[in-house]
Amino acid sequence: MELPVISECAAESCAYNNDHTCHAVAITVGDLSNPVCDTFMGADMEGGEPSVTGRVGACKMADCRHNTGLECHAPSITVGYEREQVDCLTYAQV
């Protein structure tokens, strides 16, 4: 299985974000009740691997239609703000 790519990230204050591209090798989505980007880290320094476009490593949102066995099977996801928190905007409840 190839990990789903993060096609866009609007969390400009995240240490892994550079020009709307996530550079974390893999993120975790969800905190069991909300589809938050659990990897989000607000910081003044840059993180991640500049040559990598981020992917979804794990997803805790078992009630998402893209989730099988706590793994995301969407072709790609978008990360952005939902009610002032950084969420997976591709999340779709079953």
Uncertain spans, ≥5 residues at pLDDT below 50?
none
Average predicted local confidence, pLDDT: 95
Q: How many DSSP E strands?
A: 9
Helix coverage percent:
under 10%
Beta content comes to 25-35%
- Listing every helix as H and every strand as E from the N terminus to the C terminus, the arrangement reads EEEEEEEEE
Strand order of the largest sheet: 1-8-9
* Radius of gyration based on Cα positions: 12 Å
Oligomer: single chain
Structural class: mainly beta
Secondary-structure blueprint of this entry?
Elements: E1 5-9, E2 17-18, E3 21-22, E4 27-29, E5 56-59, E6 67-68, E7 71-72, E8 76-82, E9 85-88
Parallel strand pairs: 1-8, 4-5
Antiparallel strand pairs: 2-3, 6-7, 8-9
What does this protein look like?
InterPro entries: DUF1540 (IPR011437). The protein contains no helices and nine strands. With 94 residues, it is mostly beta strands. It starts with a strand and ends in a 6-residue tail after the last strand. Helices cover 0% and strands 33% of the residues. The protein has strands at residues 5-9, 17-18, 21-22, 27-29, 56-59, 67-68, 71-72, 76-82, 85-88.
